[in-house]
Structures are given as structure tokens and as C-alpha cells.
């Protein structure tokens, strides 16, 4: 390390003892190791305070009638009411508070896909589903 002497206008070499550099690194490593040990100790204290893991008898189990199967049905949504631009509704004014209410469809047949009618971008289909 060099320091400028303003009276002489020359550079003066300042010696930094290697012992201080070694001691500084050693004590820095001791501080880091101490912080890691403290963090481990603190985590163990928190783990001891947590409730124990539930046993097998405390877990959920299947109903007596067996596993529950999913059901699938087609739903019809209520149409959005048509209004003039000046009478436009905001979401909280729409029936159902902006949620789309639905009812069971009278036609429960599954809709089959037919080639050329998917309507995806670039497919060349007309976009119809029936």
C-alpha cells in the first residue's frame, strides 16, 4: 500500500503486517462459523416446540362405501344481458355478482370432435364445434 506524503511530494510505502491479515481472516471465519452454529441451534429449538407428526390413526381414510368417483355433466351458462353503451353494467351489477351462474344442460350427450372443425389458429377450420 502506498501513501502520499504531501510535504515531500513523494510516495511512501506503508507496511501492513501479514499477521494482522491472517488474524483478520481467522476471526472473520470464526464469526461466520458462530453465526451458522447459532442459526442451527435456533432452528432446533423451533423444531422441538412444534407439535408432533400425526400418527396413522389420525390421518384421513376412505369412506365405508369406497372411493368417491367424479361426475361429469354439461352446463349451460346464463346469457349476458344486452344493454346500450350508456347503460353499461359494471361487474358488481351483473346478476350473480359477476360470477357466471350455470344450470344443468338438457342435452347431456358428449360433444365429439370432428376433423377440420376445431377452430384453432391456423387449422383452417370454421370454428364451429357441432
Categorize the overall geometry.
elongated
Structure classification: alpha+beta
Order of helices and strands: EEHEE
* Strand residue percentage: 5-15%
Largest sheet: 2 strands, antiparallel
Widest sheet, order of strands: 1-2
Low-confidence stretches: none
Rg, nearest Å: 38 Å
Number of strands: 4
How much helix, percentage-wise, in residues? 10-25%
Mean pLDDT: 76
Q: Whole-Å distance between the termini? A: 84 Å
Number of helices: 1
Keywords, please?
alpha+beta, two-stranded antiparallel ribbon, 11% strand, elongated
Describe the structure.
By secondary structure, the chain is an alpha+beta fold. The chain has one helix spanning 18-49; strands at residues 2-5, 10-13, 75-77, 102-104. It has a domain at 17-50. It has a two-stranded antiparallel sheet. The protein has a two-stranded antiparallel sheet with strand order 3-4.
Give the SSE layout.
Layout: E1 2-5, E2 10-13, H1 18-49, E3 75-77, E4 102-104
Antiparallel strand pairs: 1-2, 3-4
Quick structural overview:
The chain is α+β, with helices and mostly antiparallel strands. The protein has one helix and four strands. It has a domain of 34 residues.
Amino acid at each position: 500500500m502506498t501513501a502520499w506524503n504531501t510535504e515531500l511530494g513523494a510516495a511512501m510505502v506503508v507496511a501492513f503486517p501479514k499477521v494482522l491479515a491472517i488474524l483478520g481472516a481467522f476471526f472473520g471465519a470464526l464469526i461466520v462459523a458462530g453465526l451458522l452454529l447459532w442459526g442451527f441451534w435456533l432452528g432446533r429449538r423451533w423444531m422441538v416446540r412444534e407439535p408432533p407428526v400425526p400418527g396413522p390413526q389420525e390421518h384421513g381414510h376412505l369412506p365405508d362405501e369406497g372411493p368417491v368417483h367424479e361426475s361429469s355433466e354439461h352446463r349451460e351458462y346464463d346469457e349476458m344481458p344486452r344493454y346500450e353503451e350508456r347503460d353499461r353494467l359494471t361487474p358488481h351489477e351483473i346478476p350473480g355478482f359477476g360470477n357466471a351462474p350455470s344450470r344443468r344442460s338438457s342435452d347431456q350427450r358428449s360433444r365429439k370432435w370432428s376433423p377440420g372443425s376445431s377452430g384453432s389458429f391456423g387449422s383452417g377450420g370454421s370454428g364451429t364445434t357441432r
